[in-house]
Design brief:
The complex is a heterodimer of chains A (about 290) and B (about 270). Chain A has about 290 residues and is an all-alpha fold. Chain A is built from 13 helices and two strands. Chain A has one domain (about 55-285): Orthogonal Bundle (MetI-like fold), CATH 1.10.3720. In chain A, a hairpin with a 5-residue loop joins strand 1 and strand 2 (about 45-50). Chain B has a single domain (about 60-265), classed as MetI-like fold, CATH 1.10.3720. Classes of the chains: A mainly alpha (about 290), B mainly alpha (about 270). Chains A and B meet through helix 1, helix 3, helix 4, helix 5 and helix 7 of A and helix 1, helix 3, helix 4, helix 5 and helix 6 of B.
Chain lengths: ~290, ~270
Amino acid sequence: MSSLHADRKLSAWLLTPGLGWLLLFLVLPCLLVLVYSFVERGAYGGIEWTFTWENYQRAFDPLYLGILLKSAKIAALATLFAVLIGYPAAYAIARAPRYRQPVYLFLVMLPFWSNYLIRTYAWIVLLNREGLLNKLFSLLGYSGDPVSLLYTESSVVLGLVYNYIPFVILAIYSSLSRINGELWEASRDLGASGWMTFRRVILPLSVPGIAAGSVFVFVLSIGNFITADLLGGKQVQMVGNLIYSQFLTARDWPFGSALSFILIAIMLLLLFVQALLARRAAEGKA
Amino acid sequence: MSRQTMASSTALGVHLWLVYAFLYVPILVLILLSFNKSGLPTSWSGFSLKWYGALANNSAVLSAALNTLIVALSSTAIACVLGTLLALGVELRRKGDNKGYVADTLLMAPMIIPDIVLAIALLSFFNLVKMGLGLHSIVISHAVFNIAFVCAVVRTRLKHFDYSILEASIDLGASWFTTLRRVLLPAIFPGVMAGGLLAFTLSVDEFIIAFFNSGSGQASTTLPMQIYAMIRFGVTPEINALATLVMLVSITALLASQRLNKAPSHHE
């Protein structure tokens, strides 16, 4: 049999092209953004190679801090609603007969695999002034002017919940499905009511799933650009839109880079917390 | 079962179906409207394929579709080769020791990094090295996340792979190259195809990274960019038809990918 040494040599050959690609077109560009975030903006949108903290300070100006906080608020609301709606759905799937569960899960994930722009556009069709929901309102007896349901924080939250709820359902389902069926019986046999079993046994055991799903939705939402752009319009600016305009219209790349890194920092922090929670849960079980 | 638990399980079932309605009604409305003769979003005036016909005569849409096909096929081809090699390399190394590996983090990164951040990072990079933008820069960018996805799919395939077959092949005198080509590759091929189809779907649907790294002009406009431009003008029956076709393509590719990936459980 080949020695471990030969394995290692072969593996190095196999790894080089792919890792090389990722180093060149992922790691290097990200490091470049980090560098840009600490330099000054030149005239005409160029780069001035002088060190400065100013881009990060500027991100905490009331104007931009407001946009950051608003993005966090919208992402938090989307996360909350996704969990509130997604949890019972995941629970229903986990309690369904085993042979049906893959189909139920597949139906949850299927829309997720269609184009994000199109899924968001579908809501414009429903919510706009001439849209179906307005028609429905007038059929129900509403006689005022048609209302635009678009371009509000609520429509952005709705779009985010719609797009990311499959993640939450999947994450919560995967932790619920690991709970031993005997645990439910034991709790029931010891006299706990259904509600008590849920609150004291099932819910605590599904916390890792809730955490994983929440972090996913929050991270994807706070950095989102399309939903705020299409369903929020000019009324709802989020960090993603701010980064977009710094790069394509205001041409202040250093400031846009600083905003990107703040986004990445928030993301890494949350993923770290979630990893800690998952580890603690795993240790608790062992 | 007590009456109380019966009631709560019925409520759960109803809730699940409401969630499905929430997920599917907007898409179904869109599809239905694409066949609406009048093109009005609120009144049905009979079945018609005329909006699909209009698409066939829209040269901007056709050239965008061709561009998307070029980008998706090229980035998928790159990802299939590099992603498969990566998966083999990582799994081969893992066979020796089971501890975490730097490559794992690097392979996770393209999947979790916000699109807009990857988009501006690549734009900054291409700009710094003075590389002109066009279809080629979109291909390079899409290959970044596609490599990660193909690698992930092939790795799950390799988890079920019995390495002793490789050892047997070597012991019987085959060279490493022959063993890879004649023994390993046929075994993981469905995984590569499944990963490739997934990569193809992701590339066909990707918007932001392409938008930032395409340069200007119709020559490098992809289908999602074209759809985005059309959406900004408002709701039209033509977009509904285009959206329906794009969804059909991605769902078909996804279903094919799922089928291929399921194959081992039937054979083993």
